[in-house]
Fold:
Amino acid sequence: MSDEPSRLFCRVNPSLGKNPSLGPIPANLLAPSGAILVGFYILIEVLLSLGFVLFLLLSLWGVSTWWVVVGEKTWRFTHKFIRVPQWKRGHVSYQRHQLKRHE
Structure:
């Protein structure tokens, strides 16, 4: 038996077990960050015309606040806003049906 290093160790993908990201931004925060940016752009630039610098400052504040509140496990925060189904009771009176024979 030879003790070659290639036989002792199996190569493993180094990205296994890591969360997907786009640079420093985790992938699960891309959609909420984009929604915050678009929302602030529409509010500040289009509707109020307050300037691009104010848009940058407020969008940076909004995105950083979302990241601090939610963190990397977004489901812990966002799953609380799922609507609960509304169950309703009903009453139907029994009606006996006559079965017709096909002859």
